[in-house]
Amino acid sequence: MKKWSVLMLVLCLMAGWFCGAGAAEGEDIAGAQAEEAVVRLPDGVLMTFYEGTVFAGDSMVAMFRNYVKAKQKDDPGYFSGIDFRAANSYKFRFAAYKTIPSGEMKYAHITDGGQKVTLYAVVKKKQPARVFILAGLNDALTTDYKNENGIERALRYVRGATELIREASPETGIYFVSQMPVTKNFAQGSHNYRYVQDRNDQINEAILAESRELGITLVDVAAALKNEEGILPSGLSSDGKCHLNDEGNAVFAQVLLDLAQAEYEAGTWTPAAGNAGDGE
Amino acid sequence: MKKIFAALLLGALLLALTACDNKTAGTDAPDGKDQTAVTEAPAADQDKEEPSAGAIPVADLVKAAAADAGNLAPFSAEDLADMAGIDAADCADFVFLQGNGMDGREILVIRAANREAADRLAAQMESYLERRKEEMENYAPKAFQLYSVAKVERKNLLLVLISGENAGTETETILAGE
Fold first, then answer.
1. Average pLDDT of every residue of chain A
2. What is the ipTM of this complex?
3. Which of A193, A176, A181, A175 is nearest to A222 (CA)?
4. Chain A residues near residue B86 by CB distance under 8 angstroms
């Protein structure tokens, strides 16, 4: 009898051990599935999100473009799908023009085929998958003008640009990059850095508030660049004022990768079959 | 008589061999290229319609002239078309480099596909330079200053536009290498 009791006890212990092992295995599978649900795609795959993208903007875009081109020496696929169109002093206003009005700062418009053109013309010609617009600081610095403040005016141009892009290429996704932060050394006329930074923040908030209604996305590069004081740390700036150095542009690039990942997770973008990675 | 004939024959043979050797030395340049062709090139260049097969690659000319060339951002034929309106078909070879985009550093060197293309490129590069100046004026004073003194220089089919602190010397070095 004792022997039978010992045998039963051993069997129970073994059964318990097997059950426990099975449960642990089940938990591992569930954990793996949960992990799989939020898998981070490799950077090379995330960059394919930008194939067929036109990226228009001011000197910030020109400098990011040159940062990307320099990186392409070692990695030819580095954001290679982006067609940059940059012009110093590019403004939201310009993105809202169908044609360049006579007398308008022609030099500050983007270029195509060696000619100054509007974003509307480029989008109509290229029918890009996505358009990104970074109008830099220029809109924030204009204050009240003809009874319309700078924020209202910036929003009006954002709406106008959105309408024109839709007209030129209805399927194109529209992304506005946030107004970029400035350092403590930044000053413009009588405005100090705090005024400009506050104005930038207000414009970003206003665009974000309207983004759902307009069907556009605000890409908040500014948030990733700011320090605890809510401004650009001088260590990320090439001129100590507002333009980004390589470290700052690396943050910019990371935000673009994170955006692609967010679109993937939201189910609004799926990498092409040949580009699908296994995660990192 | 036989001895004299043999000596004459030997002399003739030696002369023939020496002549052969001289001809071989003329074609075996240190770099394996036909030295005759290289030395004749400058004279032929004055009227040539197309670049010679042995022309030094533009990238090598630029590398030899500009110490920072390897650190600059390289631009593609598509960029050249979008930014300067230049058709890649007009270019037998080109290098298009910029600094960080706001520092006024830029190198654009093109070997034209033919004389007609070179004329066209010269005008397009002049227009491009004017646009760069306008873009930098009242925006980036240092860059504007550099673009303001920059020039489009040409030697035969080679066109050079350089903006930077040492633009003059770099341009001279590149043109001298052509």
1. 86
2. 0.81
3. A181
4. 114
